[in-house]
Amino acid sequence: MSLPKPGPDRTAVVTGASSGIGTEIARDLAGRGHQVTLVARSADKLAQLADEITSAGGRADVLSADLSDRSARAGLLDRISELGLVPDILINNAGLSTMGPVCRADPEAELNMIEVDVVAVADLCTRFLPGMVERGRGAILNVASTAAFQPLPGQAAYGGSKAFVLSYTQSLAGELRGTGVSATTLCPGPVDTGFGERAGFTKEEAEAALPAIMWLSAKEVAKVGVDALDHGRLVAVPGVVNKVGAAFAQVTPRSLLLPFLTRGHPGLR
Q1: Is 11 helix (H, G, I), strand (E, B) or coil?
Q2: Is 106 exposed, middle or buried (0-12, 13-18, 19+ CB in 10 A)?
Q3: Which of 78, 65, 165, 168 has its CA nearest to residue 128?
Q4: In this structure, are residues 141 and 253 in contact, taking their beta carbons and an 8 Å threshold?
Q5: I need a surface site. Which of 125, 169, 203, 205 has the fewest CB within 10 A?
Q6: Predicted TM-score (pTM) of this structure
């Protein structure tokens, strides 16, 4: 199954498009001829990306929205329809992380993260999928992480959130067989996007905890994700080392894996 064909009334909706992987996915899709609808809180950053895409001959619409806000999410599909566009592609990329042990966590920050990383994914899929199935075409890419394959002491809620995204998207793929709509999970390892710094890591801590060979650029990760979506793949893990690590984490007994992961996490030092 391939991506739906671009059309004058069709769009690819990319959440978290103001930076990092989301920006690069939007660029990649635009480069393949798709119109894109850029969604994030930062309208200024989205406008800069939209100008870049339109200057290259594409179309990019900007919809500023806080995806932790349930009413904002509920209105997103109508706002896209008001632009005269049909969302054939949905990229659920928006996400964030907290860091540190749960016993010292800020409950509001934890719940806000789960709202964006988990609830928003399920919410938007639930709202966008009916139209895709009715039209008999569509593609959804939900961005998880290699953290989905293992426990993550020091980022427990983040790891659990990404495990949800992986399981949820695989279940969607099973439900969608024969509908003309596909669902793919992108599970990146470490990416230099500033994501870790926002979670509370320093760049030096992140690079010390994870070998340099694991790190990929946002552009590389985006291409792997869009290629996987175009080929109807179930799961995409960018980078050979990250693929091996994800496979290893799934088969290693937790009693052996947990002490290793706990010792190496900067949030628990």
Answers
A1: strand
A2: exposed
A3: 78
A4: no
A5: 203
A6: 0.92
158 is annotated as an active-site residue: yes
Q: How far does CA 203 lie from the centroid of its chain? A: 21
Strands (E), 109-263: 138-143, 181-186, 235-236
Question: What is d(CA 181, CA 28) in angstroms, rounded to the nearest whole number?
Answer: 20
Phi, psi of 230 (to 5 degrees): -65, -30
Give the sign of the dihedral formed by CA 143, CA 198, CA 53, CA 131: positive
182-236, pLDDT tens digit by residue? 999 999 999 976 544 554 555 555 555 566 767 799 999 999 999 999 999 999 9
Phi and psi for 22 in degrees, rounded to 5?
A: -60, -45
Closest CA to 226 of 102, 98, 116, 91: 91
Of 128, 149, 158, 201, which residue is the catalytic one? 158
Side chain identity, residue 205: E
